[in-house]
Amino acid sequence: MKKKVWRRMLSIVVIVMLLGAATGSALVACVYVRSRVERAVESADCIIVLGARVWESGEPSDALQYRLDSAVEAFNAGLAPAVIVCGAQGANEPATEASVMKRVLVEMGVPAGCIYEENESYNTEQNLANAKAIMDEHGFESAIIVTSDYHVQRALWLAADAGIELAYGYPSASPRPFFTIWRLRAREAASWVVYWLRKIL
């Protein structure tokens, strides 16, 4: 009798684990599919560049450099006349992400007077809420949001939550190593779950 009970319990545990794995895989697949979507981008009042890690040397990480490359591409294409760079100083970072981003953008040819720093945010939600405050201060109504391709969809959700009613996603490249990009996509899938749970509960 006890063996039957244990077998049933084990079967239930295995089924739950398999369902969890299947659901997780489906979410990661959704993140991948959304990251590959071709997105229409129109001219806007500003470009918002979301923060990413800065190395102890003061140089941007690969993910952040890719975002800056895309921001410069959009700026040089005349898609927006201003750039808002977002990000506070994280652990082991020598300066705020925003200040490093501004320095690099200026080095890449973007006029310093066109760049607005947002130095107080520690996550995507704060990035966009604080960027919206800067937009309101300067009368900007629309934005192009530059971030890693796997991150664009959630950034657009959070932009809408922050009150940015007209926003376009502008995806940058992701780190190339296979396991790195799939780890990032898995983490983003988990963030989708957290986002929607917070909306529902």
UniProtKB/TrEMBL annotation:
Residues 45-177 form the DUF218 domain. It holds the Pfam family DUF218. It comes from the Bacteria. One of its GO terms (cellular component) is plasma membrane. This is YdcF family protein.
